[in-house]
């Protein structure tokens, strides 16, 4: 849903890759959205260069990318349009590409650990931390 | 040219529509102006922050009300 002229707009994008970790990135992003962490929008729209998606990314206060692996497609798609996102790479949280089924417990655990990072900073690569939060 | 104002109809969206109409009148250009309030149509453009001004399908500005001069530049 669109916000009317409001400040503090925080958008989240999943890589939604074909690998298990890409699927998990998608599920984690949706769960974070449902928890009110950020508003989810479409990485494919940004990658396609569609003006509404591109301008939304440029106009948001914070953009957050959830990538399945270190290839970091979502992060790089935003960087291509000059936007430096707060980046989460799920394999840095200990899950292994090709060996991690998209189970609820794994998604919830990742989600919680991302929330533990606190406020995401634009341009920062976010790594697992120790602050508390719930998803 | 087709100009679309995207926004739910709040005062700011209305202000953008009024300024856009004024810009079109002062420039004497041929334009159809539509105010799009349907949320699915708005998000269909990928627009996450309103109001937005769209010219012939391309989002020119969003999340703020440009000045009259800025609007003239955007639609010229
Ligand atoms: S970041 Fe990794 S999992 Fe996601 S789309 Fe790219 S290669 Fe696939």
Question: Could you characterize what this model shows?
Answer:
With 135 residues, chain A is α/β, with parallel strands linked by helices. In chain A, 36% of the residues lie in helices and 16% in strands. Chain A is built from five helices and six strands; from the N terminus they run ββαβααβαβαβ. In chain A, α5 links the parallel β5 (86-89) and β6. The two termini of chain A are 21 Å apart. Chain B has a single domain, classed as Glutaredoxin (3-Layer(aba) Sandwich). Chain B contains three helices and five strands; from the N terminus they run βαβαβββα. In chain B, strands 2-1-4-5 form a four-stranded mixed β-sheet. In chain B, α1 (11-27) crosses α3. Chain B is globular, with a radius of gyration of 11 Å. At the A-B interface, β1 and α3 of A face α2, β3 and β5 of B. The structure holds iron/sulfur cluster. Iron/sulfur cluster binds next to α1 of chain A.
Mean pLDDT of chain A: 90
What can be said about the biggest beta sheet of chain B? 4 strands, mixed
Uncertain spans of chain A, ≥5 residues at pLDDT below 50? 130-135
Please count the helical segments of chain A: 5
CATH architecture of chain B: 3-Layer(aba) Sandwich
List the helices and strands and how they pair.
The complex is a heterodimer of chains A (135) and B (76).
Chain A: E1 3-4, E2 10-14, H1 20-34, E3 39-40, H2 43-47, H3 51-59, E4 62-67, H4 73-80, E5 86-89, H5 104-115, E6 125-126
Parallel strand pairs in A: 2-3, 2-4, 4-5, 5-6
Chain B: E1 2-6, H1 11-27, E2 32-36, H2 39-44, E3 49-50, E4 52-55, E5 58-62, H3 68-75
Bound molecules: iron/sulfur cluster.
Iron/sulfur cluster is lined by residues 15, 17, 19, 21-22, 25, 67-69, 71-73 of chain A.
């Amino acid at each position: 849903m669109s916000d009317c002229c409001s400040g503090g707009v925080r958008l989240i994008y999943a890589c939604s890759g074909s690998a298990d970790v890409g699927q998990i990135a998608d599920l984690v992003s949706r769960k974070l959205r449902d928890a009110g962490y950020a508003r989810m929008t479409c990485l494919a729209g940004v990658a396609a260069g569609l003006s509404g998606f591109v301008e939304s990314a440029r106009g948001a206060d914070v953009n957050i990318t959830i990538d399945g692996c270190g290839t970091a497609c979502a992060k790089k798609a935003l960087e291509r349009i000059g936007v430096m996102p707060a980046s989460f790479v799920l394999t840095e949280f200990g899950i292994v590409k090709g060996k991690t089924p998209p189970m609820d417990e794994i998604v919830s655990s990742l989600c919680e650990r991302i929330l533990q990072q606190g406020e995401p900073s634009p341009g920062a690569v976010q790594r697992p931390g120790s602050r508390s939060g719930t998803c | 040219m087709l100009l679309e104002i995207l926004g739910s109809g709040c005062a700011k969206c209305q202000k953008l529509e009024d300024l856009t109409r004024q810009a079109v009148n002062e420039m004497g250009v041929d334009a159809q102006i539509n105010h799009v309030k349907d949320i699915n149509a708005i998000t269909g453009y990928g627009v996450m922050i309103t109001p937005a001004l769209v010219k012939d399908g391309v989002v020119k500005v969003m999340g703020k009300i440009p000045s009259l001069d800025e609007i003239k530049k955007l639609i010229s």
